[in-house]
Amino acid sequence: MAHRALVAYERPGGRYDVHTSRWGGLDLSLAETISPADPYAGEAVDPVPRVVARPFADVLTMVDPARHEALYCVSSEYVVDTYLPLWFGLAHYLGEPAFGRGPDGLVVAVDSPADADAFRKWFRAAKDTVAEAVVGGYLSRADARAVLADAVSQRGTGRELFDPWTNGETNEY
Amino acid sequence: MTTTESVRARTNPSIETAHSVVETGLDSDALVTIFGECTVDYEGRAESTLGPGDRHVMCKPDGTVLVHTDEGHQPVNWQPPGCTHEVSVDDALVLRSERSTPEEELLVRFRDVEHVAAFDVTDPEELSLSGTEEDLRERVLDDPELIEPGFTPLSTERETPAGAVDIYGEDANGRSVVVELKRRRVGPDAVGQLARYVEALERDLHDEAEVRGILVAPSVTDRARTLLAERGLEFVSLEP
């Protein structure tokens, strides 16, 4: 709901405390407002952490791509890296129950609100096209996932790209 | 073909190629322009027809359509924000723009396209929305009739197995309502998010519980509007 985001703050030692933000997924602008003097950007980030002292791999698996629209990683020096979760779920296109399926998708690095906006719109169009092919019976769901993953990899060339949920195997989605 | 990260354009394209550029552009919320010889038919509060002539047509992601000739600053035909665009091919490139309230249709048929382009427009003003982030939710809580007459908010941040619901309430008939708030134009994935909350809440309540889902956003894509209708979910347009 809203435009929810996860915000991970690095602790000394390289582990992260993970907080939530209700609106932080709107446009990635929290990257510009989080600072040492204002670590929670006013009240934009819940100051109570959901989990503490987790490795980055755990932070990634906390992302729910169906629900979270951004991930922020705040280094101990307050350099903020931003990522877009890209949800591969197609159940809502196919009229199937959407709740209860495992998370599936990729997490890609973006470098500004404008970059995030452009990538988000591109992904929406790409997913629409792939979904249309699945609905029309031209593409299996497994192939659809592969096509989407390949398209994101190509569009995201040179960017950090994470696949937190599948470990190289096709998940149910 | 001219292609950069943010512009796709073709000069003297075939009708099929022009269709592809326009369709992809509309799907990706680009600003789409078409120049060529066309006819224009409008049917709504009045009726009008423009015979064949060279015109420049612009489709904006918010649903606006503008048809310009080489004179004047006003378009010769237009559709306001909120209309839905469709593009198809028969013996011409056909652009159809519709809205239901009031019922209006603008039909532009290009026999020949001399130039077509799709621009991914990012306007910094759009990204720095005014108001505080809680404004939208506060507005709905202060004036629930913005959602619909008889809507009563019961709680915010109600937890469900699919996550916390923005606003949970009841309609005039006592049915449970899940309201999802979005501050920018959204696509099908917002429909998927809302569907998950509705399904999770129905499981949380009893077997016979009917839960309505309402997506609140400034606008939705055409595909999202179709999926909402297919799933029995609803949309309320509200600016942040």
UniProtKB/TrEMBL annotation, chain B:
Domain Endonuclease NucS C-terminal residue range list: 133-240
Which keywords, in A-to-Z order, does the entry hold?
A: Cytoplasm, DNA-binding, Endonuclease, Hydrolase, Nuclease
Question: Which Gene3D superfamilies does this one have?
Answer: 2.70.180.20, 3.40.1350.10
Per its UniProt entry, which superkingdom is the organism in? Archaea
Indicate the enzyme's highest-level EC class. Answer: hydrolase
- Supply one GO CC term from the record: cytoplasm
Supply the EC number(s): 3.1.-.-
Q: Where in the cell is it found?
A: Cytoplasm
Q: Which residues form the Endonuclease NucS N-terminal PH-like domain?
A: 30-125
Q: Which GO terms describe its molecular function?
A: DNA binding; single-stranded DNA endodeoxyribonuclease activity
Q: Where are the transmembrane segments?
A: none
Q: What is its main location?
A: cytoplasm
Q: Which InterPro entries match?
A: Endonuclease_NucS, NucS_C, NucS_N, NucS_N_sf, tRNA_endonuc-like_dom_sf
Q: Name one Pfam family in it.
A: NucS_C
Keyword match RNA-binding: no
State the family it belongs to.
Belongs to the NucS endonuclease family.
What the entry lists under NCBIfam families is as follows: PRK04247.1 (NF003270)
Q: What does this protein do?
A: Cleaves both 3' and 5' ssDNA extremities of branched DNA structures.
Q: What is this protein called?
A: Endonuclease NucS
The organism of origin for this protein: Halapricum salinum
Q: Which gene encodes it?
A: nucS
